[in-house]
Amino acid sequence: MLASTAFLPDELALLGDPSVFNRKLSATHKLVSLMERVRQTYLDVVAPQRLLAPQLTDFAKGQIAKGENYEGYPYVMLDFPKYFSGKEKFTFRTMFWFGNYFIFSLILEGEHLPAYRAKFLQNYDALTGKNLHLGKGDLWDWRPDAVQPITLETRNETSHLIQSQSYLKLVHHLPPAMLADESAVLTAAKNFYIAAETIIAR
Known about the structure:
Order of helices and strands: HHEEEEHHEEHEH
CATH topology: BirA Bifunctional Protein, domain 2
Strand order of the largest sheet: 1-2-3-4-7-5-6
Number of domains: 1
Radius of gyration: 19 Å
CATH architecture: 2-Layer Sandwich
Number of strands: 7
Shape: globular
Helix content: 25-40%
Largest sheet: 7 strands, antiparallel
């Protein structure tokens, strides 16, 4: 059965109001610029020689992308540093998901995963108290229920989860309102990198 094509008054108002789309366009441009500043923040602190990473990992340029439909909402994202090749993944993915939140993440998969798991467990206590989460389920699921909090109370559950999955994804969320303070976002980016480095250091 086809959905009704009868538009509601608020839908008609939206479709006829160019200011809505102009504001989205302006916000998207600002998000792209912010992603570039996050890239520069990572560039200032990353030391490739200290990291256990695939040989061809991009530690210089990265990639900014945007789209209109992740679970129905637009997004802007940055992959940097990054490496993708089949089952081998090493990337810091930063994403703003419209209507939801700003995301910092580290995605790891492939031959070095046992070493990353060991580092995660070795440094577990240091990762608590930072509002960090471990991704679970589908690697590319960014919904709120696709993460497990990293806390002292969830140590056993989190330790089991990390051993049972074929990837490791570290995640930190910021509320959209925090975008009003760019310096706070960039500080959060630096702090996330420092925390993540304990997992990927040689």
